[in-house]
């Protein structure tokens, strides 16, 4: 029995090793179209996983993650275009040489900007509960879009920003998004299997009894929101460098918030694998239906409706129940 | 600082009456069913399109097609509540996502069927100016205010003096107690949803007459609708009327003082501030 188990374990490890090796060498073996989709998968899986932290575990549904996404995208873009704000510091650090790979720093700055924004609005916003929280977050994206459109002397307004980093090789973007995805998965895995996970599940089930057990509800909600915003902002920055053209109508739009929600609901909220499955399915669907205008969104809506009524646990719960796969 | 001219206030009132009229159905549904109906804007749009096609195909006056739009969307709301929303009403998250899904589905069906073109109902009397207190407004905008007022009065009468209205108010206060007293909560909630949707359809007809029509217009209005509901108090028709007019005036003042770019954002800002003020007040009460 023990040898059998150890073989099984080693086989599992082997699979994992092959998977890691494949993800590392993917830019050399995959065609560029497939690589494009894999990069989008990493970015969107990060966003979905981040949304899940607040929406899946604590069960405060946010329809405003496009706000964090847009802040991240704009922070990364503006820091790349106007390096005079921070290049001086870099030059001191790296003795006068600013290597082009430093665009990664703008992505980190994007995450910090989004997290900072979440920290400012977090406390008043999280006083709201349930549907009221959702309505308030629904308004955030529009408010920010209006500001970005109006303050064109800072943000280039409706014309948008073209980034020079688009000229980089696809493999650069691939490894950036892979690292982002891996870091996000690791951090969120550690969070939900630790103290935060227990506390947030308790809050999600019953807030009042959780606080009666001595859980500081506001603290954990704020942590969830800030971490969620941090990774969403980083994903936004990564996305901006990859797509290399951003404007208010492809960053601050409700569709982005909606897709994050649908990915989680489709895959199964409150699980680690759910958002990944949902992201995979949704991106596959989007690519398959790319030629049909509006039909894509209609099918998205129908999936959402069906999932809500018939599959409350999403696809991952469905697989778990039907195929008896325990680790999902 | 220069004071805004008087016509601005008057036009703001007319614009606010649109928001108020839109919020009547929303506040009823929110009050009785305790759900946030994100699909409300699309139901309004459908009402507008019914009036539009009746006008284009048969030359029917939009004011005469109000009853038709009311009936059709009443049935549609009944179907949506009875076959979709009813099954998930216990869970907030799922209802929210479901209504979002329904809204998206309706919007995209309309986009596929009627294209995202901007359409208008151009009746002959649309450009007749009316002079009130020395301020010139178009007749259709004035009709908007009248329709909103009539809607408010009728809904108020229904809520105050009919059995259905009393049952609705009972369910809004305490659904379990109402059920104990022999009120069929399920039937009342379905009828409330249908009635609320039908009220949106009436707004839609007036919107198509005074503004323009395109399938995505509901998306822009829904947040203002929530804003009015939160400001006016959930389940209160008179509150919605006052809240709607207040939002209209606030928006116009924002346009006058800050700039037209911020018109879209100001109602949302008020909404978020009002919500937070409410939450803070509740905390105070608890302490």
Question: Could you explain how this protein is built, in words?
Answer:
The complex is a heterodimer of chains A (328) and B (287). Chain A is mainly α. Chain A is built from 16 helices and 2 strands. Chain A has a domain of 223 residues. Helix content of chain A is 78%, strand content 1%. Chain B is built from 11 helices and 2 strands, in the order ααααββααααααα. Classes of the chains: A mainly alpha (328), B mainly alpha (287). Chains A and B meet through α6, α13 and α15 of A and α4, α9 and α11 of B.
- Fraction of residues in helix of chain A: over 70%
Spell out the helices and strands of chain B N to C: HHHHEEHHHHHHH
Q: What strand order characterises the main sheet of chain A?
A: 1-2
The outline of chain B comes out as: globular
**Count of distinct strands of chain B:** 2
Order of helices and strands of chain A: HHHHHHHEHHHHEHHHHH
Mean pLDDT reading of chain B = 87
Integer-rounded radius of gyration of chain A: 20 Å
What structural category do the secondary elements of chain B indicate? mainly alpha
**Strand fraction of chain B:** under 5%
Helix run count of chain A: 16
How much of the sequence lies in strands of chain A comes to under 5%
C-alpha-based Rg of chain B, rounded: 19 Å
Low-confidence stretches of chain A: none
Key features of this structure:
heterodimer; A: 328 residues; mainly alpha; two-stranded antiparallel sheet; 78% helix; 1% strand; globular; B: 287 residues; 3% strand
């Amino acid at each position: 029995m023990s040898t059998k188990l150890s073989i099984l374990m080693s086989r599992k490890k082997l699979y994992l090793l092959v998977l890691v090796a494949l993800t590392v060498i993917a830019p050399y073996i995959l065609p560029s179209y497939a690589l494009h989709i894999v990069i989008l998968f990493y970015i969107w899986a990060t966003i979905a996983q981040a949304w899940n932290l607040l929406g899946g575990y604590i069960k405060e549904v946010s329809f405003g993650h496009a706000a964090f996404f847009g802040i991240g995208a704009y922070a990364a873009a503006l820091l790349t275009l106007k390096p005079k704000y921070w290049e001086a510091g870099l030059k001191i650090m790296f003795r006068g040489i600013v290597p082009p790979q430093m665009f990664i720093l703008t992505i980190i700055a994007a995450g910090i900007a989004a997290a900072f924004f979440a920290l400012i609005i977090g406390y008043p916003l999280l006083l709201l509960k349930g549907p009221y929280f959702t309505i308030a977050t629904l308004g955030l994206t529009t408010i920010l879009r209006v500001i970005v459109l109006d303050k064109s002397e800072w943000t280039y307004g409706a014309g948008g920003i073209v980034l020079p980093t688009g000229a980089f090789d696809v493999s650069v973007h691939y490894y950036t998004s892979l690292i982002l995805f891996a870091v996000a998965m690791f951090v969120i895995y550690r969070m939900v299997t630790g103290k935060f996970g227990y506390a947030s599940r308790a809050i999600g089930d019953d807030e009042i009894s959780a606080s009666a057990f001595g859980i500081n509800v506001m603290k954990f909600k704020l942590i969830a929101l800030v971490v969620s915003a941090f990774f969403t902002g980083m994903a936004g920055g990564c996305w901006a460098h990859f797509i290399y053209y951003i404007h208010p109508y492809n960053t601050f739009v409700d569709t982005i918030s909606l897709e994050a929600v649908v990915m989680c609901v489709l895959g199964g909220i409150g699980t680690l694998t759910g958002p990944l499955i949902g992201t995979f399915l949704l991106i596959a669907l989007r690519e398959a239906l790319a030629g049909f205008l509006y039909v894509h969104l209609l099918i998205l809506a129908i999936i959402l409706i069906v999932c809500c009524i018939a599959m409350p646990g999403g696809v991952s719960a469905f697989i778990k129940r039907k195929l008896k796969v325990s680790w999902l | 600082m220069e004071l805004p001219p008087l016509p601005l206030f008057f036009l703001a009132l007319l614009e606010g009456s649109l928001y108020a009229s839109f919020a009547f159905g929303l506040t009823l549904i929110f009050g009785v069913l305790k759900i946030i109906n994100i699909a409300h804007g699309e139901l309004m749009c459908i009402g507008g399109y019914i009036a539009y096609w009746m006008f284009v195909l048969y030359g029917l006056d939009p004011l005469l097609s109000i009853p038709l739009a009311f009936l059709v969307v009443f049935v549609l709301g009944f179907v949506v509540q009875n076959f979709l929303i009813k099954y998930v009403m216990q869970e907030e998250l799922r209802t929210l996502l479901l209504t979002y899904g329904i809204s998206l589905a309706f919007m995209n069906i309309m986009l596929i069927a009627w294209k995202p073109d901007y359409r208008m109902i151009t009746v002959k009397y649309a450009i007749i100016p009316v002079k009130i207190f020395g301020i010139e407004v178009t007749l259709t905008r004035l009709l908007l205010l009248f329709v909103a007022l009539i809607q408010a009065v009728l809904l108020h009468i229904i809520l105050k003096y009919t059995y259905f209205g009393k049952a609705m108010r009972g369910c809004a206060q305490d659904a379990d107690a109402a059920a104990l007293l022999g009120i069929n909560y399920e039937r009342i909630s379905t009828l409330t949803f249908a009635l609320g949707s039908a009220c949106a359809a009436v707004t839609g007809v007036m919107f198509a007459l005074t503004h323009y029509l395109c399938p995505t217009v509901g998306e822009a209005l829904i947040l203002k609708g929530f804003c009015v509901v939160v400001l006016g108090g959930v389940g209160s028709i008179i509150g919605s009327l006052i809240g709607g007019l207040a939002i209209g005036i606030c928006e116009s003042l924002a346009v006058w003082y800050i700039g037209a770019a911020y018109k879209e954002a100001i109602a949302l800002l008020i909404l978020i501030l009002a919500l937070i003020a409410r939450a803070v007040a509740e905390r105070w009460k608890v302490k």
